[in-house]
Design brief:
This protein is α+β, with helices and mostly antiparallel strands and 375 residues long. It contains three helices and 23 strands.
Length: 375
């Protein structure tokens, strides 16, 4: 192998390793608009085009304009691009398609995306036949009408990013135009808030202001676990839910307040009990100390009194004994003497019999004497 051929082979292999090889045609990109396809006049809108990772350029074509209408570099990870319209007008209300480029070729163009600008005419009316509240499985028809002679009507659903529904108008004997949007048999997925717009056929993407909102409710025994019930999606249901939430919060706060009040009451009660026990202990100690002092004083007084009493008793004993002896001696007025002696808290009674008196003297009643001796 010659050196030139070897260099060309290595160069080819190097280029082949850096160039991705696409097996078959490139995937068709996806095109969508935010915040939706029906935009009020003068509002901003963003168009997104998503392809495959590794793209190096995205292009957006607008119907009626030279291609490409816009070019944008992809955002990381290089799988989509963003096209912005700051103020949507009638000139921007057209059909759009996008495509992307990778080393090796261009992708197919996306499915068309149609933008509609609203706010040019008066709003139509929207009603439900037979009623906006139907049972699951029944049929319902949404009727959009106006007296301005619109050629077609658009029906949109709030929060739904799918394309809008369109119907050509049907002239009425009264001169009004209306369109019917049959829906059914309905399921829980059909419920929601709907609006309609009127448009002229010569300017199909320039439409009127939206109609008043119509809320379609589906009742029945079937339950969709992935969605909330209609009562919670309506304004009244949300208000009831908020009232219940506020009531539960207030009840919880009151319960917490009562628990705190009970805690402080128990704490104050225990404190009073401890204070009362302490006061009782102090009083008991004071009484014990007072009793001890009184006992000491009594013992001291008893000792002093006993010594003095014994002396007085000893001093008074001779006189008393003399009196008793003088009384015990017989005399002319002698009589029976009964005396009692209390010695050590014991009472003794003794009687002495004096000599009988002479017969010529009258008998005298006996006398009773008590002698108390305290030791």
């Amino acid at each position: 192998m010659t050196p030139t051929l070897r260099v060309l082979l290595c160069l080819g292999l190097s280029v082949g390793l850096r160039t991705p090889v696409q097996a078959g045609p490139l995937p068709k990109p996806t095109l969508w608009a935010e915040p939706g396809l029906v935009i009020p006049w003068g509002s901003p809108v963003t168009i997104w085009c998503q392809g495959t990772p590794g793209a190096d350029e995205y292009r957006l074509d607008k119907e009626g304009s030279p291609a490409p209408w816009k070019r944008e570099k992809p955002l990381d990870p290089r799988d989509k691009a963003k096209f912005s319209i700051t103020q949507l007008t009638e000139h921007d209300a057209e059909r759009y398609r996008c495509y992307y480029h990778i080393p090796g070729g261009w992708s197919e163009r996306s499915d068309p995306l149609e933008l509609v600008v609203t706010g040019s005419y008066s709003r139509p009316s929207l009603s439900a036949l037979p009623s906006p509240v139907v049972t699951s499985g029944e049929n319902v028809t949404l009727q959009c009408g106006s007296g301005q002679g619109f050629g077609r009507f658009l029906l949109t659903k709030e929060g739904d990013h799918r394309p809008f529904w369109t119907q050509d108008s049907e002239p009425q004997p009264s001169g009004q135009s209306q369109a019917l949007f049959p829906m059914g048999p309905v399921t829980l997925s059909h419920r929601g808030t709907f609006r309609c717009h009127g448009c002229y056929k010569n300017r199909p993407r320039l439409c009127s202001h939206p109609s008043d909102a119509l809320e379609l409710r589906i009742s029945g025994s079937s339950v969709d676990p992935n969605t909330l019930p209609p009562e919670l999606t309506s304004a009244a249901g949300l208000q009831n839910y908020h009232e219940i939430l506020i009531g539960v919060s207030v009840a919880f706060i009151l319960l917490l307040f009562l628990l705190l009040l009970l805690f402080f009451l128990l704490k104050h009660r225990n404190k009073r009990r401890r204070s009362g026990a302490l006061n009782l202990e102090v009083k008991t100690r004071a009484l014990q100390k007072s009793s001890s002092s009184m006992v000491d004083v009594q013992e001291k007084n008893q000792c002093t009194g006993n010594s003095g009493g014994d002396a007085s008793i000893r001093e008074s004993q001779p006189e008393e004994e003399r009196k008793m002896n003088s009384q015990d001696t017989p005399s002319e007025d002698a009589q029976d003497v009964t005396y009692a002696q209390l010695n050590h808290l014991t009472l003794k009674r003794e009687t002495t019999a004096p000599p009988p008196p002479p017969s010529d003297q009258p008998q005298v009643e006996p006398s009773v004497y008590a002698s108390l001796a305290i030791h």
